[in-house]
């Protein structure tokens, strides 16, 4: 499954993320890719709000490496920018099976090594406020 969406604002991105979240059960792994300012955290705010978490609680874990949000399901929000693939894999393995795992800079991992339903989401900057959001389900091995 691969779907493409166009976003013209942060509000659009939030709506796309909420719609995507409707299909989640809470045991998935989401790999997010996008340049700085592309809207990765905005997308996560949309997912979190679907699960009853105040979107204002959601912020990028750039300096803390991980934020945990408690809603209808636990969400583990990790930033892999400053981690090696090995460090990231070790950190992620602690949360497998405990909730939804969302990885900013998820493309820094070499491959999908976890036995979880997974999605790869890329947010591309087209213009100042315009984005293309590509959501792809990583098929079972």
Computed Rg? 14 Å
Total helix count?
Answer: 3
Q: Give the C-level CATH assignment.
A: Alpha Beta
Characterize the overall form.
globular
Task: Kindly state the number of beta strands.
Answer: 7
Largest sheet: 7 strands, mixed
Q: Approximately how much beta-strand content do the residues carry?
A: 25-35%
Domain count = 1
Indicate the low-confidence ranges by residue numbers.
Answer: none
CATH architecture annotation name: 3-Layer(aba) Sandwich
Class computed from helices, strands and strand pairing: alpha/beta
Q: And the CATH topology?
A: Rossmann fold
CATH superfamily: P-loop containing nucleotide triphosphate hydrolases
Q: Order of strands side by side in the largest beta sheet?
A: 1-7-6-2-5-4-3
Order of helical and strand elements: EHEHEEHEEE
- End-to-end span in angstroms? 14 Å
Mean pLDDT: 90
Helix content: 10-25%
In short:
Helices cover 23% and strands 30% of the residues.
Task: Describe this entry's structure for a reader.
With 141 residues, the chain is an alpha/beta fold. It has a single domain (2-138), classed as P-loop containing nucleotide triphosphate hydrolases (Rossmann fold, 3-Layer(aba) Sandwich), CATH 3.40.50. It contains 3 helices and 7 strands, in the order βαβαββαβββ. A 7-stranded mixed beta sheet has the order 1-7-6-2-5-4-3, covered by helices on one side. α3 links the parallel β4 and β5. The longest helix has 12 residues, at 10-21. The chain starts with a strand and ends with a strand.
């Amino acid at each position: 499954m691969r779907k493409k969406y166009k976003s013209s604002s942060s509000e659009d991105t939030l709506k796309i993320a909420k719609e995507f979240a409707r299909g989640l059960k809470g045991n998935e792994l989401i790999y997010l890719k996008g340049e700085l300012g592309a809207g990765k955290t905005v997308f996560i705010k949309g997912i979190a709000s679907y699960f009853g978490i105040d979107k204002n609680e959601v912020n990028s874990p750039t300096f803390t490496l991980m934020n945990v949000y408690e809603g209808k399901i636990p969400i583990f929000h990790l930033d892999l920018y400053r981690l090696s693939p090995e460090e990231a894999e070790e950190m992620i393995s602690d949360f497998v099976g405990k909730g939804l795992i969302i990885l900013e800079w998820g493309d820094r991992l070499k491959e999908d090594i976890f036995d979880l339903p997974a999605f790869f989401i890329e947010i591309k900057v087209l213009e100042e406020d315009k984005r293309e959001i590509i959501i792809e389900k990583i098929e079972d091995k």
